[in-house]
Design goal:
By secondary structure, this protein is an alpha/beta fold. It has a single domain, classed as 3-Layer(aba) Sandwich (Rossmann fold), CATH 3.40.50. The protein has helices at about 15-20, 35-40, 60-70, 80-85, 170-180, and strands at about 1-5, 25-30, 45, 75, 90-105, 110-125, 135-140, 145-150, 155. The strands form two sheets. It has a six-stranded mixed sheet. A three-stranded antiparallel sheet has the order 6-5-7. The relative contact order is 0.17. One of its GO terms (molecular function) is carbamoyl-phosphate synthase (glutamine-hydrolyzing) activity.
Length: about 180
């Protein structure tokens, strides 16, 4: 079992399912970190969520602490943007946000194209201070889609990597229907 701390800004159900399927045990971050939990942690997951990443400034020092002690970090969408700000990237608002399940991105190093699910209005600009590895760019507008570091254990990705985005998130509808039917 891999123990991760979830900093949850609005994690989708599909993301939880993917983490559990990949044998992660999830501790959700509340307000304070129990020092004993730090000894159990294998990593930190910073989730997706809504809004402007600059509005989550109260979490910057917490995430910076994990970067400093070199606990592996995986950041998705809003988490990617927040982690990028901490790593001195400039954030900008997109003219047209990236929304939908067929957003094409390209891995420059492997010369591969992937279709991703995306739902955000902000993005990051490449900076000169970061050592890049495995760069992904949007094929719609050439925006940077990830940062991976060879120096620190960090993977950040702009899209949502769930294997089945969208439709499976509302499978709970069938449970609600069953509850009505059984009354």
């Amino acid at each position: 079992m891999i123990n991760i701390l979830l900093i949850n800004f609005g994690c989708k159900l599909g993301m939880f399912k993917l983490l559990i399927k990949n044998n992660y045990f999830i501790y959700e971050f509340k307000q304070k970190i129990n020092i004993f939990l730090l000894f159990k942690l294998n990593g930190v997951f910073i989730s997706n969520g809504p809004g402007n990443p600059k509005k989550y400034i109260k979490y910057f020092n917490i995430i910076l602490f994990f970067i400093y002690i070199k606990i592996p970090i995986l950041s998705i969408c809003l988490g990617h943007q927040i982690t990028s700000i901490i790593n001195m990237f400039e954030i900008f608002k997109l003219k047209n946000g990236h929304h939908g399940i067929n957003h094409p991105i390209c891995n420059i190093n492997k010369k591969q194209i992937y279709l991703t699910s995306q739902n955000h209005n902000f993005n990051i600009k490449k900076n000169n201070y970061f050592n890049y590895a495995n760069l992904f760019f949007s094929l719609f507008d050439k925006t940077l889609q990830n940062i991976n570091s060879e120096i620190q254990p960090l993977i950040c990705f702009q899209g949502h990597p769930e294997g089945c985005p969208g439709p499976n998130d509302l499978v709970i509808t069938f449970k609600y229907y069953k509850n009505i039917y059984e009354k």
